[in-house]
Amino acid sequence: MSHLDILLPFALPPAELAADLCKALRTPALASLVARSRVEHVLPQEETAEGFHRALPHERWLEQAFRGKDAPERNSSPPIAPALMRSLGNEPDTGHWFVVQPVHIHIARDHLVLTDTRKLMLPEQEARALFDIAAPLFDDYGKTLLYGDAGIWFVRADDWCALHTSTPDAASGHNIDIWMPRGPTERDWRKVQNEVQMHWFNHAINEAREARGLKPVNSLWLWGGASADALLTSHYTNTFNLSDWIKSFGTVAPARTTSATAQEVIAAKPQRGLVVLDTLLEPALSNDWSLWLDGMHALEEHWFAPLLEALRSGAIDHLSLIATHDSGLSQFAVSRLSLRKFWVKPSLAPLCS
Question: Domain of life here (predicted)?
């Protein structure tokens, strides 16, 4: 038996645009899959004490999938820093660790807005130089800053363990005020953050970046805090295409493939596989719905059509499409048997309603 979960961040169109976007979609394979599926689970945006979620629905789904349903609930970013450290070759032996990302924050009319981290385009040489400026400043506050890669660093901060933090994608494009770390030691974080900002301001690296038409690196984003002994679990035998920080979840799967086509996934015949297709994230976060449509049509050609054929032929037994937007999640379960419902016409209505 072969089962695939396909996680599709932002494959659900926003409610206010759903009708128009779905009219523009030309995705017959996807229409066949969702029309003949069973909606297993719908995750609305549950209420929190703060009135908003500090992680996006697909991020919360991943956390639940790899930490289990019994993991303690709190409105914070997924606690993935130790696992992400291990995936980048750093072993956290003790303490409480956070992810720290160099970012660009721009000034709107009356507030500050976090820019999508994918747009930063920070090369290794510049990242190393900025890290070398920041690390001694963290040392001054008794905190250890470690380098992971150009876009992901780590800080040990045992006394910050009660902070509630937000993922960069959840905060992207928004007024950062409510998304900033909250908790007893939030001022301690802001002090070191401000120190770094002052040292980076008008630095030669940023002046050169701006001269090349790039955004300056002017702040840091803190999130993903967890104890060094925090462990992930997995019921997946294979993971495919887990990139960026999400790759940390794949470290506990027996078999991992970082870049695979639909044909390669199907040929692998995973007993229980997870595929993450996140190409819609950037256009959705940027509200570029023309590019979003292009992305959906590319997924239709390269993924939905081959997966539909694999189900029909028996190469795959079961398939679940987990589609999200910024405030909800729907899961569509389809099997070879359910595809035999010839009386059910292909339709995107389940996806767009």
Answer: Bacteria
